[in-house]
Amino acid sequence: MYQKQRGASMWQWMFYAAVGFLGLYVALNLTPIYIEGMSVRQALAKLEHQGGGSSKREIMAKLEKQFQLDQVNSVKKEHIKFRQVRDGKLEVTIEYEKRVPLIGNLYLLVDFKNKATI
């Protein structure tokens, strides 16, 4: 009587391990970028909660100081935009993207857009 083999073969296990290692590799590359993105979001929330100041210059100075403390290197001055909204408040938008090399010429692109009304 013929019995069928049960369980995964060596090639199946190697495939599962390769997929797992690739997922782990991507997660390890993306984690610092998302932590930096959370720092940007927290800096804007802190500025919104405390009241950033009345001028763009004051807001920029506070953001730069906070970014320096949090070691945020991806956000440049040209990524920060101001827009006048009602009641004399300013809407601060920080929009930037980060490209992470994955394997060879394959990249992961992460796009961030954060807003706060000050």
What does this protein structure show overall?
- Helix content is 47%, strand content 26%.
- The protein is of the alpha+beta class and 118 residues long.
- It has one domain (10-117).
- Helix 1 packs antiparallel against helix 2.
- The longest helix has 41 residues, at 10-50.
- It is elongated and about 85 Å long.
- The termini are far apart.
In short:
This protein has 118 residues and is α+β, with helices and mostly antiparallel strands. It has helices at 10-50, 56-70, and strands spanning 80-84, 90-103, 106-117. It has one domain.
Q: Keywords for this structure?
A:
about 120 residues, single chain, alpha+beta, about 25% strand, 3-stranded antiparallel sheet
Q: How much helix is in the residues?
A: 40-55%
Question: How many DSSP E strands?
Answer: 3
Rg (CA only): 22 Å
Cross-sheet strand order for the largest sheet: 1-2-3
- Note the total helix count: 2
Apparent shape: elongated
Helix and strand topology:
Elements: H1 10-50, H2 56-70, E1 80-84, E2 90-103, E3 106-117
Antiparallel strand pairs: 1-2, 2-3
Helix pairs in contact: 1-2
